[in-house]
Design a protein that fits this description.
The structure holds two protein chains of two kinds.
Chain A (H helix, E strand, L loop, with lengths): L12 H12 L8 H4 L6 E3 L20 E6 L6 H11 L2 E6 L3 H10 L6 E2 L6 H6 L21 H4 L3 E2 L2 E2 L2 E13 L10 H8 L7 E3 L3 H11 L9 H14 L3 E4 L4 H6 L4 E5 H10 L3 E4 L5 E8 L8 H11 L2 H11 L6 H6 L2 H4 L8 H4 L2 E3 L2 H5 L1 H12 L1
Parallel strand pairs in A: 2-3, 2-4, 8-9, 8-10, 12-13
Antiparallel strand pairs in A: 1-3, 5-6, 7-10, 7-11, 7-12
Helix pairs in contact in A: 7-8, 8-9, 8-18, 9-18
Chain B lengths: L1 H37 L16 H4 L5 H32 L2 H12 L6 H12 L4 H7 L11 H25 L3 H9 L4 H29 L3 H7 L6 H11 L3 H30 L8
Helix pairs in contact in B: 1-12, 3-7, 3-9, 3-11, 5-10, 7-9, 7-10, 8-9, 9-12, 11-12
The chains are: A alpha/beta, B mainly alpha.
Chain lengths: 387, 287
């Protein structure tokens, strides 16, 4: 069970069976196919048995014996939850999701049953506006130290001076290239899209995700990743429709295709890029020099959480740098917390996929809240997919 | 007399009660909810906002491509299924030795014990670069791509829905009176005309049942085209998933769902009519 970051090495009979078992738990690449098609609600149960008695440290407030978290696939070290259960007696049920939109849909529908979830930066203001989350009671999170957080990545968790969400990790959205198949060095989104229609014909993947697919098409023309201007979106749509017949797939589950050699180039998130490059060195991770997306995932607690005490206890546990460092080693995404960075091995901190050079980071933009709820972008994506 | 009638009515009501309650709670009420949603509006942050408007229905052309793709996929997929299933059902019902028949039938059904999602993922690996293409490369055919092609989608559909087509055809062939085949031969018909005039004709109700069953399921299909087709072709199923879970335009999604249900009903009625007319059998009302 606890093998997250070794997932998806070149397939052997044993790992194939492993993979199947993993898929059965609904756990494949982030914002992956399962999620985007609604099957991401498939639930991975980490530990269901009734827990042992709470330890004295937590006895003051009853934590119950179970709670539920909504998060991304391959995003935690499963050992974390097992240790948490050992310490507190609370079994954690992990719900794996495919997209922020899907998480929001579930929370809007009500009775999600989650006591903790992992929204991305640009969704937090919408959650607050809809009254789905409340300010965090910081007294219950002594392990969180705001002064150690890098403000560039953590700002969107705080609205009008009140903390609604605390950061898990940050990352970027670039593209992964199999440099053995596409030998021409690439440094920009313009080259990504042009190559998709030339050497990369029928071997290129884009996300099944409006934020990044439309955003990165906007970057071809140098527009903002978050643009909602009709004329700019029209240009992006024109490009997307032109590229569509040349694509290998429209899917956010790109690791299998890249690993099998069917796909040679794909839009890609930091942690997937790091995993692909680690296992298959000829797969490079590129950040478009025009810019693109930078993101932070946060922890937040739903207002209707059925087990708030356990939600706070787990969140506080996850904010412990000793615990968090294992999480970062497992999922491969960079940390926002200086205390955690001190504990990470040098080769992780020196990995340019995780910690890109400043000149590449500068032009990146955080996703904007409006893109989440804008019906125009959703319709554009539908026209692209049905073209 | 009056008393016995009342008792009969009561008994009928008791026997029908559980099924009726089930249908009301899990079919009728959700359907009403969807119908209400479909005349509503999308809230600014997504979801549903009460209203009374037919704007969602007027907007249906925005998903015309998805409807069209589905209308092509469903009959073509069902036809492909039929072409593969008929010989299998024929063999099972008329040719297979009696003692093997049950085992062979069980083999047809056993794949159903594993979820379609799992089996489709297995195909992803079989058709992907490390599967059949790797074998082809070994004998000299480099860089063959099978996954994310229309052929892969068709294969997945035939594979996934085959048992649903085989079983009804098998049942109708199994019931076939063998003496009719002998009579046809005695009267000088060739094997081919016996097959066309007797066997095929009498098995048509099974064929139409299988065909409409598979076709209706295909109207809502999105898994196989997404996994084996790379999500490049957009079906109604994909449109619905996106509308409910991504853009959260629940009213528009509801309007599409209602339309899809109506289309399915029309397909079912048409299939039933065709089947009774062609086979000359007594009309069986499915709905």
């Amino acid at each position: 069970m606890s093998k997250s970051y070794r997932d998806g090495l070149p397939i052997s009979p044993e790992s194939f069976v492993d993979q199947l078992m993993r898929l059965k738990r609904g756990s494949i690449g982030r914002r992956d196919f399962l999620g985007l098609t609604g099957l991401g609600i498939a639930t991975a149960v980490m530990a269901r048995e009734i827990g042992i008695m709470p330890t004295p440290a937590f006895a003051a407030e009853s934590l119950g014996d179970r709670m539920s978290i909504a998060t991304w696939p391959n995003y935690h070290d499963p050992q974390t939850f097992e240790n948490f259960k050992k310490d507190t007696g609370v079994a954690v049920e992990v719900n794996v999701f495919g997209s922020n939109e899907e998480m929001l849909a579930k929370l809007q529908a009500g009775a999600s049953g989650w006591s903790l979830f992992v929204p991305t930066n640009y969704t937090i203001s919408t959650y607050k506006k809809l009254g789905i989350i409340e300010p965090l009671e910081m007294a219950k999170l002594p392990n969180f130290d705001g002064s150690q957080e890098d403000p560039r990545f953590t700002g969107e968790g705080t609205i009008d001076g009140t903390i609604y969400a605390v950061p898990k990790n940050w990352g970027t959205t670039g593209f992964a290239v199999n440099t053995k198949k596409l030998t021409k060095p690439m440094t920009s989104w313009k080259e990504f899209w042009d190559t998709a229609m030339a050497e990369g014909d029928s071997r290129t993947m884009v996300h099944d995700y409006q934020l990044t697919t439309i955003g990165n098409a906007l970057k071809y023309f140098g527009y903002s990743f978050n643009s909602l201007k009709p004329d700019e979106l029209a240009k992006a749509e024109e490009l997307l429709l032109k590229v569509k017949p040349h694509l290998f797939a429209v899917s956010s589950d790109y690791q299998p295709g890249m690993r099998a050699g069917d796909a040679w180039m794909t839009m890609c998130w930091t942690n997937d890029g790091a995993q692909l490059h680690r296992d298959i060195p000829e797969i490079a991770y590129v950040l478009g020099k025009e810019g693109g997306e930078i993101w932070t995932d946060f922890y937040a607690i739903p207002k209707d959480a059925p087990n708030k005490p356990a939600g706070y206890a787990l969140l506080n546990y996850l904010m412990n740098p000793q615990v968090a460092v294992k999480e970062h080693l497992a999922n491969g995404a960079p940390s926002t917390d200086a205390r955690v960075n001190k504990l990470l091995p040098k080769e992780v901190l020196d990995n340019p996929i995780l910690y890109p050079a400043a000149d590449l980071l500068t032009p990146l933009e955080f996703g904007a809240a409006a893109t989440l709820t804008d019906p125009g972008r959703a319709e554009l994506m539908a026209r692209f997919k049905s073209a | 007399m009056h008393g016995s009638r009342l008792r009969k009515t009561l008994l009928t009501a008791m026997l029908l009660g559980p099924a009726t309650a089930w249908l009301v709670v899990f079919l009728v009420l959700p359907f009403i909810a969807i119908a209400v949603f479909s005349v509503g509006e999308r809230a600014p942050e997504g979801g549903y906002q009460a209203a009374f408007t037919f704007a969602q229905y007027a907007n249906l052309p925005a998903r015309a491509t998805a409807f069209w793709n589905t209308m092509v996929l469903a009959p073509v997929g069902a036809l492909a299924c039929l072409l593969v299933a008929y010989p299998v059902a024929y063999y099972l019902a008329l040719q297979a030795p009696q003692r093997w028949r049950l085992i062979l039938l069980a083999l047809v059904v056993i794949p159903f014990w594993t979820s379609l999602l799992m089996r489709t993922y297995a195909w992803m690996y079989v058709l992907g670069g490390r599967g059949i293409p790797a074998l082809l490369a070994y004998i000299g055919f480099e860089d063959v791509r099978l996954i994310n092609t229309p052929g892969a989608v068709l294969l997945g559909i035939v594979y996934g829905y085959l048992p649903l087509m085989i079983l009804p055809i098998y049942v109708s062939l199994e019931r076939l009176d063998r003496r009719l085949l002998e009579a046809s031969a005695d009267l000088g018909a060739t094997p081919i005309s016996t097959f066309l005039g007797v066997t095929l004709k009498l098995s048509l109700p099974g064929v139409m049942t299988g065909f409409s069953l598979v076709m209706i399921l295909l109207l809502g299909e999105y898994l196989i085209p997404t996994l084996l087709g790379g999500g490049k072709v957009f079906f109604i199923g994909n449109a619905l998933v996106d509308l409910f879970l991504q853009s959260r335009n629940w009213p528009f999604g509801s309007a599409i769902a209602i339309t899809l249900v109506l289309v399915s009903v029309v397909v079912l009625i048409a299939a039933n009519r065709i089947s009774t007319r062609v086979s000359g059998a007594r009309r069986v009302d499915l709905i």
